[in-house]
Amino acid sequence: VIEKNVVVGDFTIIGSNTVILNDTQIGKRVKIGCNNTIGGIGFGYEKNEKNEYELIPHIGNVIIEDDVEIGNNTCIDRAVLGSTYLKCNSKIDNLVHIAHGVEIGENSLIIANSMIAGSVKIGKNVWVAPSASILNKKIIKDNSVIGMGAVVLKDVEANDVIVGNPGKSIKKNGGQ
Questions:
Q1: Is the CA virtual torsion 162, 164, 167, 171 positive or negative?
Q2: FRET label pair with 108: which of 43, 49, 94, 134, CA 20 to 30 Å apart?
Q3: SS3 annotation, the chain
Q4: What residue ranges of the chain have pLDDT lower than 50?
Q5: How far apart are CA 26 and CA 96, in angstroms?
Q6: pLDDT value at position 157?
Q7: Are 128 and 122 in contact (CB under 8 A)?
């Protein structure tokens, strides 16, 4: 399903049962697998004057740049304001959740079962290993590695390697 105001670049492939919601922009040579939802509303709630949760309107969109690959059964939420970005040549594996307002840098890999919470900024050449979780509004700088199952609760410096729960630095990576 491709909803209104969606732009799809040349030579892009979209698999069966994938839903691309309003205002999503997809670049050239993008590969999107099956059973994905791209541009849906994220899990953003605030309490009202009655102390009840209300959904925050998500009026942003998703922008997927050229040469991005997205596996199967992945969810990429639209931003509350602005855009959720997947930059050039980023690769997203199966069963990944990318929340509203996230930015994935160029040439970064987000591996199966990872959860990237709202407004996270991931730099270039970052590797996020299987089942990692990154808390909202964290900054993961260039050339970092987030280890398998790591729970990232703090910003990550460039070239660092983070493992464990809570995530801790084990060494500087020296770049990729």
A1: negative
A2: 43
A3: CECCCCEECCCCEECCCCEECCCCEECCCCEECCCCEEEECCCCEEECCCCCEEECCCCCEEEECCCCEECCCCEEECCCCCEEEECCCCEECCCCEECCCCEECCCCEECCCCEECCCCEECCCCEECCCCEECCCCEECCCCEECCCCEECCCECCCEEEECCCCEEEEECCCC
A4: 176
A5: 18
A6: 96
A7: yes
Confidence (pTM): 0.93
In this structure, what are the phi and psi dihedrals at residue 27, rounded to the nearest 5 degrees?
A: -75, -165
CA distance 126 to 62: 20
115-116 β-sheet, strand order: 19-20, 37-40, 75-77, 97-98, 115-116, 133-134, 151-152
Structure confidence at residue 174 (pLDDT): 56
Tracing tokens 């994938």 back to the chain, one arrives at 18
- Specify which residues 97 forms β-bridges with: 75, 115
* 127 and 146 Cβ atoms separated by less than 8 Å: yes
Tell me whether residue 100 is one of the annotated catalytic residues.
yes
Residues 120 and 137 sit within 8 Å (Cβ to Cβ): yes
Catalytic residue among 78, 87, 91, 100: 100
